[in-house]
C-alpha cells in the first residue's frame, strides 16, 4: 500500500519560529561558561556573602534581617546580568561575525529574532530565580506579602527584563563588538556600585538621590525589595521600567544595525 504525502509549502507560524530560535539561543548561552559565571555564580556567591556570613548586617542594605534585604537585590542583579550584560555581549559578537545579518535574512523576521533572544533570556532568568530563591530560603529568607509578593516579583522581572534587554540590544546594535564588551561590563559595574542595586536609594547622599531614583536599576531593585520586604505591588517602579523599555525599544528599532 502506497503512502501519499501532501506537501505544505510555507514557513512555520511565527510563534513556533520564535520558540525554536529561543531554544537555540538558550542552548548557546548554556555552553558559554563566562556568561553563566556572570549570570549565576556571582549573584549566588554575593547572596551567601551577604545573607550567610553576617557581612550584610554591616552594610547599608536597609532596616531588617540581612538575608531578607539581600535576596531581592541579588535577584535584581541576576536580571541585570542576564538581560543586559550577557545579551549585549553575545549579540555584539554575533553581529561582528555576521550571524545576525544571516539570521535576519532567514524566514524568521528580524522582530522574531530579537523576540527569540529575549525569550532565551527569560528562560535563563527562570533558572536563576529558582536557584537564588532556593538558596535564600536555605539561608532563612522570610518574604512577606503572599500572592502580592509573588505577583510583584514576576511583574518586576518582566518589566526589568524588557528595559535592560532593550538597553543591551541598543548598545550591541550601534557599537562594535569590542566596544560593546567594554561598555557593557563597565556599565554593569557602575550600576552595581552607583545604581541602587545593592543599596537603597535612601542610603545615597541626598544630592544624588533624585538622579539615582530615575535609573532603571533603582526601580528594579527597589521594586523587588518592596514586593518581598513590604508585601506590596510596586506599580510605580513597574511603570518606570515600562517607560524605559518603551523608549529604549523604540531607539533599538531605529538604530540597530544588522551588519
TrEMBL record:
InterPro entries, per the entry: ABC2_TM, ABC_2_transport, Nod_factor_ABC_transporter
Compartments in which it is found: Membrane
Top-rank lineage group of the source organism: Bacteria
Transmembrane feature ranges: 36-55, 75-93, 114-141, 147-172, 179-198, 232-252
ABC-2 type transporter transmembrane domain location: 68-246
Membrane topology of this protein: Multi-pass membrane protein
Keyword Transmembrane: yes
Annotated protein name in UniProt: ABC-2 type transport system permease protein
Amino acid at each position: 500500500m502506497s503512502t501519499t504525502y501532501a506537501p505544505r509549502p510555507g514557513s512555520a507560524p511565527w510563534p513556533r519560529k520564535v520558540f525554536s530560535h529561543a531554544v537555540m539561543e538558550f542552548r548557546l548561552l548554556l555552553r558559554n561558561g563566562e556568561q553563566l559565571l556572570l549570570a549565576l555564580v556571582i549573584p549566588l556567591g554575593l547572596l551567601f556573602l551577604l545573607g550567610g556570613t553576617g557581612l550584610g548586617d554591616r552594610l547599608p542594605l536597609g532596616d531588617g534581617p540581612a538575608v531578607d534585604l539581600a535576596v531581592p537585590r541579588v535577584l535584581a542583579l541576576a536580571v541585570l546580568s542576564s538581560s543586559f550584560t550577557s545579551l549585549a555581549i553575545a549579540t555584539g559578537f554575533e553581529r561582528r561575525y555576521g550571524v545576525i545579518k544571516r539570521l535576519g535574512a532567514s524566514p524568521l523576521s528580524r522582530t522574531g529574532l530579537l523576540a527569540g533572544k529575549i525569550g532565551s533570556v527569560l528562560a535563563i532568568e527562570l533558572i536563576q530565580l529558582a536557584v537564588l530563591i532556593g538558596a535564600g530560603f536555605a539561608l532563612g529568607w522570610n518574604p512577606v506579602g503572599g500572592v502580592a509578593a509573588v505577583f510583584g516579583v514576576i511583574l518586576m522581572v518582566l518589566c526589568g527584563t524588557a528595559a535592560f534587554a532593550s538597553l543591551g540590544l541598543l548598545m550591541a546594535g550601534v557599537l562594535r563588538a569590542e566596544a560593546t564588551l567594554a561598555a557593557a561590563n563597565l556599565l554593569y559595574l557602575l550600576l552595581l556600585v552607583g545604581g541602587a542595586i545593592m543599596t537603597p536609594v535612601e542610603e545615597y547622599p541626598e544630592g544624588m538621590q533624585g538622579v539615582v531614583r530615575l535609573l532603571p536599576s533603582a526601580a528594579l531593585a527597589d521594586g523587588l525589595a518592596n514586593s518581598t520586604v513590604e508585601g506590596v505591588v510596586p506599580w510605580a517602579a513597574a511603570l518606570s521600567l515600562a517607560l524605559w523599555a518603551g523608549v529604549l525599544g523604540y531607539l533599538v528599532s531605529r538604530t540597530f544595525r544588522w551588519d
